[in-house]
Structure formats: structure tokens, C-alpha cells
Design goal:
Helix 2 packs antiparallel against helix 3 and helix 3 crosses helix 5. The chain is mainly alpha-helical. Helix content is 50%, strand content 7%. It is built from 5 helices and 2 strands; from the N terminus they run αβααααβ. The N and C termini lie far apart (31 Å).
Amino acid sequence: MRIRDTLVGFPTKPEFSMRRRTASKYPRCASQLVMSADQQRELEHLVRNGNSPQQVALRCRLLLLAQQRLPNPTISEQLNVSRPTVLALHAVFAKDASGGGSARPSC
């Protein structure tokens, strides 16, 4: 399964509510997304490709910013998405066995 297939199936609404904040869902430190060079190239290609759907390109930008260790609030502000969306996409990418990514705390 390619990264694009994972990003297309990503839910637009997070599964958890903003009203129920717990430490496990909202870590204080941003997690670094670890990805291979091939995965990074594929994400960059999807961002630059004029034929990619806007949602897919946005999710690719989000993953690329997360890979650069930017804090989740910064990513959400830059891309105009909610913080739970950032966290949910981190989780989807980290759990995807074919994506091979993993989330590691950076602090």
C-alpha cells in the first residue's frame, strides 16, 4: 500500500472530542515522525504534483512538517487545521505498517 492510499482514507474528523483532554491524547512535546528517504521523496512529490487532491497535498505537508520536529500547535497554525487532526494523522502514519513510519518523542 502506498502512502497516498493511506492519506486518501484518512478521516476528516478526529475520533476524539476537544472537550475531553487527557495527557495521553495531547502530549506536551511534539513527536518526531521518522520516515525513510523514499517516503519523504514520495510525500514531496505528492505536494508538488498538480494532480494530487488538495486534501492529500495538505496531509503530505503536515507529515513533512512533523518530520522536521515542528510542534503540533505550530503545524496546526501554519496549515490551518486543528491540533487533533495533526495528532490523528501522526497516529495513522505511525501505525501504518506499510508506511513504516514511527513516532518518537523529541523531548
